[in-house]
Amino acid sequence: MRSPASSVPIGRRVAYWRVQRKLSQQSFADRLGKSKSWVDKAERGVRSLDRLSTLQEIAAVLRIDVSALLGRDIQPAEVTQRLQAVDQIRTALSTYEVALARPTESGRMLSSPQVADLVKHAWITYQQARYPQLITLLPNLLMSAQRVHVPDPEAGRALLVDAYRVTAALLVKLDEAGLAWLAADRAMNAATGEAVLLGAAAVQLGQVLRMAGRARSAGSVALSAAYRIAPPDLDNGRPEELSLCGALLVQAGLAAARQGDDSAAARLLDEAAELAVRVGEGRDDHQTNFGPTAVDLARVAAALDLDAASDAVVWHERATGQAAWSLLPAEYRAGHLINAARAYLQTDDPLNAGRALIDAERTASAEIHHRPVARKLVAQVARCPAAPSTVIRLAAALSVT
């Protein structure tokens, strides 16, 4: 019997090698420390096998090299790099040398201003969607921020919170819910006692909880943080306070939409829109990019969760037709275009869905090349008879045909 062709999905590759090793699903599951149901779903493609550590465990049990599971066309360089990078971040988040007061390897510790520069650079790199570069920055950033925080918790608190926040934001993009939750939780713990820092950390926690299927908790966290920092008099509120409060209301609105509560979603996003008018466009307080256009883009995501794809298309075309659209970072715009492609696809318009994906790739290629949700969407659109040729070529380049 020949080795499975490179076009076979990775779950079927696992099944092939399991049968070759004369293992039943149950015996294979026992050796992995998983359930039979887990193995069955993995082999059928219901459960994604996109963690390098998991693939390495499977390969060890099957007595094969992990490359036998990672066909080049199934897992091209971008995906392999992403899996390896996530493991590096996992290692950084699992390191406790600082808390245990162990010495550094070099004996050198960065100063607070140097770490502040690293944090600023990390956020810029994230907003430019330079994810591979950010991945290489994060382990050192996390360690350096911890080392500044330990001797002077008050001075180093904001830096540590931001280091965990940007880590959580990237992990959300990479669809790593468990690890993102750890980073967001660390940010919340570091921010305890400081309302503004806690609110900023809650933005990322809300995103993580929604991704993890805990929309109710996401809404509760976001609303609690928003009302805690909301100024008593909005007319005298500072823009940075209003924008953070508004960003949290957006998270609460999206959480309500994820739960199917259209009235609560509309009310919360309307509240956010009122604050957005006061804040105006072009600000980026606490890395939220909050403003009127950002709220309109949130309405697109909410409409998708409420199965109102036609409304999502209307909001998308309205928001992207405004001048302020170009003021948003590349990461924000490309991420929204992926939502727009979903909306077009759900309204049986694969042509515009394809165009949105191509625009996203041109705006920030990493959003398409490194995000699992985007790669799956490219494959879906490419399979449509009316898909534009540019998307078919993109799918081939991504090896997701």
Plain-language structure description:
The protein is an all-alpha fold and 401 residues long. The chain has four domains: 1-74, lambda repressor-like DNA-binding domains (434 Repressor (Amino-terminal Domain), Orthogonal Bundle), CATH 1.10.260.40; 76-192, no CATH class; 212-328, no CATH class; 330-401, no CATH class. Helices cover 70% and strands 0% of the residues. The chain is built from 20 helices and no strands. The radius of gyration is 22 Å and the shape is globular. Residues 1-6 have low confidence and may be disordered.
How many E-type strands? 0
How far from one another are the termini?
A: 25 Å
**Proportion of residues in β-strands:** under 5%
- Provide the number of structural domains: 4
Q: Describe the main β-sheet briefly.
A: none
- The average pLDDT score comes to 89
Extract low-pLDDT stretches. Answer: 1-6
What is the 3D shape? globular
Category from helices, strands and their pairing = mainly alpha
Give a concise summary.
The protein is mainly alpha-helical and 401 residues long. It has four domains: 1-74, lambda repressor-like DNA-binding domains (434 Repressor (Amino-terminal Domain)), CATH 1.10.260.40; 76-192, no CATH class; 212-328, no CATH class; 330-401, no CATH class. Helix content is 70%, strand content 0%.
